[in-house]
Specification:
InterPro entries: WH-like_DNA-bd_sf, WH_DNA-bd_sf. It is a single chain. The protein is mainly alpha-helical. Helix content is 45%, strand content 10%. Strand 2 and strand 3 form a beta hairpin. It has a 3-stranded antiparallel beta sheet.
Amino acid sequence: MALDTAELLLHPVRMRIVQAFLGGRTLTTADLRAELADVAPATLYRQVATLASHGVLRSVGERRIRGAIERSYQLDEAAAAVDADTIRGMTPEQHRRAFLTFVAGMLADFDRYLDSGGGDLARDLVGYRQNAFYVTDAELVEFITRMRELFAEYAALGPGPDRVRRLFTTVLLPADPVQADGTGGAPSDATSSTS
């Protein structure tokens, strides 16, 4: 069955599988079973096969274990991305569903962190916060470009001694209602206050 990229990636288990490969990792289905222990093996194998058949996961090796073939996979990051045209064509309801799946994945990641003995956010260098800033569209594009360049620099370091695989999640939204012309609705002299 052919699935468009958005539909393919918005399945909660498939999204978790894709997230497990982030950071240039090579994993077998046995590795995935260890990381996603709460997912039934049959479901996991079926969803890995779906991602592989759509080119999101590619087989990079195999070995025989007790008569069975065990494949190693890597993520094709380009195939795991939803293109701009698809995003523009999504309905508000599809965006809500996509965002809900995304947020549910973040909540599950945080639950796993806490359940595995986490909770000392300072010790573990864990954080979540929200900030706001005022920028033009051009300044925002520059900010995003610089953030991507900085992230790419650190992502290129790869695994190594004392390096912990970390998830870096971003959400970028206009803080004020968006007008029909795509501009924010706040006046330029808007101020904020805290209580």
